[in-house]
Amino acid sequence: MARSSFSGPVASANGFTAFQENTTNLSLPLSSTGTGVVAITTNVPVFFTSPVVLDTTSDVTYTAAQLKGGIILRDPNGGARADLFPTAAALVAAFPSCPVGTTFEIVIRNTADAAETITMTTNTGLTLSGTMTIAQNNQRRFWVRLTNVTSSSEAATIYSVGGTTF
Q1: Of 166, 77, 73, residue with least CA distance to 113
Q2: CA–CA separation, 138 vs 111, rounded Å?
Q3: Where is 65: in which H helix or E strand?
Q4: Are residues 160 and 142 in contact, defined by beta-carbon separation less than 8 angstroms?
Q5: What SS3 class is residue 79?
Q6: Are 118 and 161 in contact (CB under 8 A)?
Q7: Which of 68, 115, 144, 156 has the most other CB atoms within 10 Å of its CB?
Q8: What is the secondary structure of 99-154 as a DSSP string?
Q9: Could you read off the pLDDT tens digit of each residue along the chain, which spans 166 residues?
Q10: pLDDT tens digit string along 100-138?
């Protein structure tokens, strides 16, 4: 028997996470091939991650697919880097039919073997909020929130929500 209401987060394997309270008649698009995984939980966040390893000697523009993976392991390989987030349009395109307010979390870990800092920089349609630097042997969590999903007007805010040393 299907549940008609729930309270808590909803997550899918492709990186979409929604948090709803006491919601009825929720509609989630799933693939017709049955490859999507949707978990309804109660008070327990569910994360589906696919770590991406980046080891380059230059600045990198991340893709929306890399961010949807949830974890980026970045080695600046010899120097400080100014990496770019993807454009807001690319982020919106990665979540078809998503509503304004769709939010997901990413972690970027600096795996450098020397004092090489990563500075995350903006791209078209983005607003950055908080600390955007990641020192050697540190990681930083970001929340990516889509604020406009209208074609040709896409916008998102990326919030820095804390860093830790590993």
Answers
A1: 77
A2: 8
A3: helix 64-68
A4: yes
A5: coil
A6: no
A7: 156
A8: PTT-EEEEEEEE--SSS--EEEE--TTEEEES--EE-TTEEEEEEEEEEE-STT--
A9: 444 444 455 555 555 555 545 455 555 555 445 444 445 545 555 556 789 999 999 999 999 999 999 999 999 999 999 999 999 999 999 998 899 999 999 999 999 999 999 999 999 999 999 999 999 999 999 999 999 999 999 999 999 999 999 8
A10: 999 999 999 999 999 999 999 999 999 999 999 999 999
Q: Quick one: tokens of 58? A: 């230059």
Q: Read off the tokens for 163.
A: 């860093």
Q: Please report where in the chains the tokens 């770019």 appear, as a residue.
A: 84
Residue 40 corresponds to which tokens in the numbers above?
A: 């309804």
Give residue 137's region: left, alpha or beta (phi > 0; psi -120 to 50). left
β-strand 71-75 against 126-129: which pairing, if any?
A: unpaired
| Beta-strand relationship, 118-121 and 133-134 | antiparallel
